[in-house]
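Researcher: Let's try something more involved. This one mixes different molecule types, so please make sure each is placed in the same coordinate frame as the others.
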Amino acid sequence: MIKFNRVFKVYEKNIKALDDINIEIAKGEFVFLAGPSGAGKSTILKLLYREEIPTMGTIFIDNKEITHLNEHKMALYRRSMGFVFQDFKLLFDRTVFENIALPLVITGISEAYTKRRVAEMIEKKGLKGKEKLNPWQLSCGEKQRVAIARAVITSPPVILADEPTGNLDEESAWELMKWFLELSGKGTTIIFATHNRNIMEKYGKRIIRLKEGKVVEV
Amino acid sequence: MRWLKEVFLNFKRSGFMSMISIGTITITIATLGGYFIFNESIAYFETKVENKVEITAFLNEGGEALSTETLINEIKLMPETAEVLYFSKDAAYAEFTKDEESKQVIDSLGENPLPASIVVKLKTYTQKGVEDMAKNLRAKPQVEEVQYGAKEVENLINIINVIKIITFVTGLIFIIASVLVVSNVINLTVYARRQDIYIMQLVGATRSFIRMPFILEGVIHGFLGGLAGWGVVYLITNIMLTQIKKETGIDLSGFYIVGANYFVTKFLLAALGAGTALGFIGSIFSQGNPPK
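Model: All components are placed in one shared frame. Result:
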């Protein structure tokens, strides 16, 4: 379970990004984080993957407090999550294969297993024949497929998605949602930040609405 | 294997910066190598020159044989004396008249004008030691005149010492420069790759996973710089040996330090070791801290 307990985030010049956030997300739940730009959706995700730490308050994941992890523990903690971003965050001078394999490579898993597992993901995400291409040679939809393949290759229990459909055409966006739902069906916790009303309304999942750093609907 | 691949990628991405880093280490190793070879050669020739420093005491005409023997024994008993050689008038004549022209000159005088002499060699060479011994010898009644060439040798040694200091300081400056250049090149690489590093951190890469390729990069720069530095010294030494042989006829190829055995084994290993160490230290000194 993910729990935010009285979490505040204030940036320099007293810019309040989050203001007394109290939310709970159950294991295996699919939650949308909704709200206009600047509402605090991305900040919540950044706090979860520890790019930021709260100015005040605590965040628990499976009853473990994550705000005071040291650098090494933070690296290990991040391995328990998958990330999908609007701008894909791919390594542009690496091949599709190398990008997808990255989470396995950093954990030191055997090359043979890595090859097998990446081949599986490539097949599953419809990227066959593109293994040796670099991300800049792919369409946006394909880049996002590479990103999601990288995010799920280690079967992490939590997936954080920050506007993942933002750069996609409608067809690619629906296809991406299909994969997220499939993952959710397998028990993966998904926190999906978006301002796309169509997507949120279509799936009937819980929506945490934010406005100016405050939760306005849980 | 992965790290080597990363290093290769970095070479591809920032080849020019890598070349600067390798080039600086090359210059450092070449300077240090040159300093070492110069030092060794000078030390070798210094010993040769020092061994030739002798103090010659010319004896009074008609000195009693007994008093000469007493003088020799007295000198032999001095703690700083290494060797005492006595040259009689006849021995001096024999030595001087080896050359036919000199023989004719001496013979024309009708009698042997050359004095008997004593040559003293010291155990350790210092200018003060030579001067003290000369002073001692002058005080002896059997001694007419004392000659030694210490001043010239001392001047030569002083010049050599100044050159040694200059080379050493230059070497030192280059050591510091290489460490700074390597660390800055790696800092620039880290900066250029900050987005990649950020992505790797996001997916859970540890600090060592991220830093290791950069350290390896520094080490490889150092190794290549060491190899190139050795090559430069090797080339320059060979050119100099050829030139010396051509100009003076002196063949120095037998001198152990420029001999193939020494140059391509010990000296090469030392250059590679020093270059690698410089690269390693440079990469350790680099910030190498990817963005949090």
